Amino acid sequence: MRLASATGAQGAAVTAIALDDEGFLVERKLWDRALAQQLADRYGLGPLGPTHWMIIDFVRDRYFRLGAMPPMRNTCRKLGVEPDAVKKSFGTCRCLWQIAGLPNPGGEALSYMG
After folding, report:
1. Domain 29-113, what fold?
2. Fewest CB within 10 A of the end CB: N or C in the chain?
3. Alpha-carbon distances, residue 55 vs 27, 62, 79 (angstroms)
4. Rounded CA gap, 70 and 40, in Å?
5. 25-58 confidence digits (pLDDT tens)
6. Would you list the domain boundaries of the chain?
7. Residue 25 DSSP code
8. Closest by alpha carbon to 20, among 114, 87, 101, 113?
């Protein structure tokens, strides 16, 4: 386990975030929208907007109801966004998964996440 320090506006450290060796949140109960924004800042994404939140909320809902990540093509279609909206918004599925505060999906899934 490692602690990552997220930074807020003006470069001040906001909080230490406990992440596993792959960069995933260790304790999912600690996740909230403020933490998601801190993680987004850590990855250089800037402020999370409505499209970000729509995708995050959908992926979190699907994961906690079904126990798996929904295919991104299906996610985009169901949300009515461009097929590459996840890539444009988050860079990779892995980054989305991390910002959404979802657990480490394991080695095989990580190989598909980019």
Report:
1. Arc Repressor Mutant, subunit A (1.10.10)
2. N
3. 21, 11, 8
4. 21
5. 999 899 999 999 999 999 999 999 999 999 999 9
6. 29-113
7. B
8. 101
